C-alpha cells in the first residue's frame, strides 16, 4: 500500500487548517509563481512543444500496453551487466530487500538520492527500525528531515518553508546529527547551501551504501537514469561500494531514443531549465568504477491496480515533474500536506486512489474532490495526463463504493429530486407547497438578494453547502401557476 502520513485527516479538514496559515500561503504563492514563470519562459522557446507532449504520451501509453515484455527485457539487461534484480509486490517487500542488503554488509547508515518511491514505501522508517540511519542528501529533503517535517511538493519538498525558517532548522538540528551549522549563518541562499554542503560532505565520504530511485529505466540496455540539480545524486551514485535502486515498474522506457523525448520535457516542466544540470546514468556494475554491487528493486505497490483502470492508467505516464502542482489553484492555497501523501497536488489526487483503491479509507476517498476541475493541470502536464477526467471518474468510483452503506444526505436529496421530477402530478403538488415555504421564507430570510428575493440561512444536513452560499427562498408563485394566471403570458402582454 502507498504510505499515508500518519494521522492526516480527510482533505477538507486538512485544507481548512492550511488555509488559516497565512505564512504557509505566502510561502507557497511566492514559490509557485516563480516556478510557473520560469517554466512558461522556457516552454515558449520550443516551437514543437505540443508535438513533444504528444510523443511523450504516446511512448508511455505504448510502453504500458506492453509493460510485461519491457520489464522482462529490463531484468535481463540488468542481470547481464552484473546487477541483482528483486521484484517487490508491496512496500513491505521492497523495504525488506533494502534492509537485508544493509545487514549483509554490516552498515548502520546509508546516503540517499531524492526519491519519491522510497518515501512512498516509508523506507527511512523501515530502515530506522532495523538500526540503519538513512540520510537525505538533497537540500530540500535535508531541510524536511532535519525539521522532523513532511514533504509538501514533488520537486521542492520544503516549498512551505522560507529562508528564515530554514536557517533556524539548520542552527538547531545540524549539530545533533553531524557537522554543525556555521556560527555566523545567515538566511542568504548561498550561505544556506554552503552549510548543507559542508554538513553532507562527511556523510558522502564515509558512506558505504547508497539508496536511489530512478526517473527512467531503459529496457534495451538495463540503464537507470537519475536527473537532479545539485550534484548530490552524482555523489551517492559513484562513491559508495553498494547501491540499491528502488524503481517503480512504470518508470521503464523501451529505448534510448525514447529517453531523448523525456529529457527534453522533464527539465522545462519541472525546474524551468532548458537542460538538467546533472543527468546520471548507470548500467549494472563497471569494474573499478562506481559501486561494485548494484541491486535494483522493481516495485509494484498498487501500480498493476492502476494499470487495470482504463481511465486512470494514464496517471502512470507521470514523470514527476510537478508542473501540475505549480499551476493548481487548490494546491497553491493549501500546500502538499493537506493531501496526506508523498504525492500531493492534482497528480496525487488521482495517483493515491488509483494505487490504493477507493472505498476503504476516508482520507483517500476525499482526494478526488480536492480540485476545482479548472483543467490547468492538463494544460501544463508534459505527458498530457487528463487529470480532470480521471478525477471525475474516481469520484464516480468513490460514490459506487459506498452505495451499500447508509446513504449520505446528498444521496437522499438526489433520490428525492428523482422522485419529485418523475411525475408531473407530484411536481405540481410540491410546487404549491414550495409557494407556502416561499411566503414564510420571505418573512424569515436572513437578507435580501438582488431582485428582491430573500436568502435562507444554513439548512440542516446541508450546512457545508448552504453555509457558504446564498440559497434563494422558493418563489411564492410557481411557473405553472403564473402560466395559468396569465393565460400563457398573453394577459401580461395585453397589459
TrEMBL record:
A Pfam family of this chain: LUD_dom
UniProt keyword annotation of Cell membrane present: no
4Fe-4S ferredoxin-type domain: residues covered: 315-385
Database matches in Gene3D superfamilies: Alpha-helical ferredoxin, NagB/RpiA/CoA transferase-like
GO molecular function: 4 iron, 4 sulfur cluster binding; metal ion binding
Signal sequence coordinates: none
Chain ranges of the LUD domain: 75-299
Keywords recorded for this protein, A-Z: 4Fe-4S, Electron transport, Iron, Iron-sulfur, Metal-binding, Repeat, Transport
A Gene Ontology biological process term: lactate metabolic process
Alphabetized PANTHER family for the sequence: LACTATE UTILIZATION PROTEIN B (PTHR47153)
Protein name: Lactate utilization protein
Organism: Nocardioides pocheonensis
Amino acid at each position: 500500500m502507498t504510505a499515508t502520513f500518519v494521522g492526516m485527516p480527510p482533505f477538507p479538514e486538512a485544507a481548512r487548517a492550511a488555509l488559516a496559515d497565512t505564512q504557509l500561503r505566502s510561502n507557497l504563492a511566492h514559490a509557485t509563481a516563480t516556478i510557473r514563470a520560469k517554466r512558461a519562459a522556457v516552454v515558449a522557446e520550443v516551437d514543437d512543444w505540443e508535438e513533444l507532449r504528444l510523443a511523450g504520451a504516446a511512448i508511455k501509453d505504448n510502453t504500458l500496453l506492453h509493460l510485461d515484455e519491457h520489464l522482462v527485457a529490463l531484468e535481463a539487461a540488468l542481470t547481464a551487466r552484473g546487477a541483482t534484480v528483486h521484484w517487490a509486490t508491496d512496500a513491505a517487500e521492497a523495504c525488506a530487500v533494502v534492509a537485508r542488503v544493509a545487514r549483509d554488509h554490516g552498515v548502520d547508515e546509508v546516503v540517499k538520492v531524492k526519491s519519491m518511491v522510497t518515501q512512498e514505501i516509508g523506507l527511512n522508517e523501515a530502515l530506522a527500525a532495523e538500526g540503519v540511519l538513512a540520510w537525505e542528501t538533497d537540500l530540500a529533503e535535508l531541510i524536511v528531515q532535519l525539521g522532523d517535517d513532511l514533504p509538501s511538493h514533488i520537486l521542492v519538498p520544503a516549498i512551505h518553508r522560507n529562508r528564515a525558517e530554514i536557517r533556524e532548522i539548520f542552527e538547531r538540528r545540524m549539530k545533533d546529527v553531524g557537522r554543525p551549522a556555521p556560527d555566523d549563518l545567515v538566511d542568504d541562499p548561498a550561505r544556506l547551501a554552503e552549510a548543507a554542503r559542508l554538513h553532507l560532505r562527511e556523510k558522502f565520504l564515509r558512506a558505504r551504501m547508497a539508496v536511489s530511485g530512478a526517473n527512467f529505466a531503459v529496457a534495451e540496455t538495463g540503464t537507470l537514469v537519475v536527473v537532479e540539480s545539485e550534484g548530490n545524486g552524482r555523489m551517492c551514485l559513484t562513491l559508495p561500494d553498494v547501491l540499491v535502486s528502488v524503481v517503480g515498474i512504470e518508470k521503464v522506457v523501451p529505448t534510448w531514443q525514447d529517453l531523448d523525448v523525456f529529457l527534453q520535457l522533464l527539465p522545462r516542466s519541472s525546474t524551468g531549465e532548458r537542460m538538467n544540470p546533472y543527468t546520471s546514468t548507470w548500467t549494472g556494475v563497471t569494474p573499478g568504477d562506481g559501486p561494485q554491487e548494484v541491486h535494483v528493486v522493481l516495485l509494484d505497490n498498487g501500480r498493476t491496480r492502476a494499470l487495470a483502470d482504463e481511465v486512470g492508467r494514464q496517471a502512470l505516464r507521470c514523470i514527476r515533474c510537478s508542473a501540475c502542482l505549480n499551476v493548481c489553484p487548490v494546491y497553491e492555497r493549501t500546500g502538499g500536506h493537506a493531501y496526506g501523501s508523498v504525492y500531493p497536488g492534482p497528480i496525487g489526487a488521482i495517483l493515491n486512489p488509483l494505487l490504493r483503491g477507493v472505498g476503504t479509507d476516508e482520507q483517500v476517498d476525499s482526494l478526488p474532490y480536492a480540485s476545482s476541475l479548472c483543467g490547468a493541470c492538463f494544460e501544463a502536464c508534459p505527458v498530457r495526463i487528463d487529470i480532470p477526467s480521471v478525477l471525475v471518474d474516481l469520484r464516480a468510483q468513490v460514490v459506487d463504493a459506498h452505495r451499500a452503506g447508509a446513504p449520505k444526505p446528498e444521496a437522499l436529496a438526489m433520490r428525492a429530486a428523482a422522485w419529485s421530477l418523475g411525475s408531473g402530478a407530484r411536481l405540481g403538488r410540491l410546487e404549491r407547497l414550495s409557494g407556502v415555504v416561499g411566503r414564510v421564507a420571505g418573512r424569515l430570510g436572513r437578507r435580501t438578494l438582488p431582485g428582491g428575493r430573500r436568502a435562507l440561512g444554513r439548512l440542516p444536513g446541508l450546512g457545508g453547502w448552504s453555509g457558504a452560499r446564498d440559497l434563494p427562498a422558493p418563489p411564492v408563485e410557481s411557473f405553472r401557476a403564473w402560466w395559468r394566471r396569465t393565460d400563457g403570458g398573453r394577459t401580461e402582454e395585453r397589459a
